[in-house]
Amino acid sequence: MKSTRKIAVLLLGTMLMCLLTVGCGKKENADLPNEQNAEQLVEQPQQNETDVQNTEEQSSVPQDVVIETRFGNLAFPEQWSEFITTNETEVSDECIKVDFSAKINDTYYLLFTIYIGNGEGIDECVKVGEIRDSENEVRNVYVEVAEITVDENLSEGEQNRIYAMQEDLNYLIDNLK
Prior knowledge:
Blueprint: H1 2-31, H2 35-43, H3 49-60, E1 64-69, E2 72-77, E3 84-92, E4 95-104, E5 107-117, E6 126-132, E7 138-145, H4 156-167, H5 169-174
Antiparallel strand pairs: 1-2, 3-4, 4-5, 5-7, 6-7
């Protein structure tokens, strides 16, 4: 019986050693590139920590809806793309206005108006920045914020969406180029 016990312990010990050797061997081999991966490693430069951080930052940057005007482009958060409408109107040869409205349940709610140009004839507007057109000419940007009243036909969520869209005027201002 002692010999059976010795054989069982020896067998168990041997199996344990084999498992450790195989397990460690696979881990070492997994770290080594195979021939196919070796070509990819040569062709692709390694990323350092800064590159990885920049890649992560780029992927977390929200996308914009770009509103093209003849005096330059305006950016608005893409999350509102299905609800935002714009209407560009010529005020004069040197000034345009762009009305931003929220479309909810087939009704349009004016959020704010952006004026781009020389500012003549624009009453009660605030200059918020500058924009460059395709010919690199700098033009002033003015804003007039619409007063939004509570609409009893809208749910609380829809009303809050209108307020949030109007608040993203700040995003548009921050992204003037």
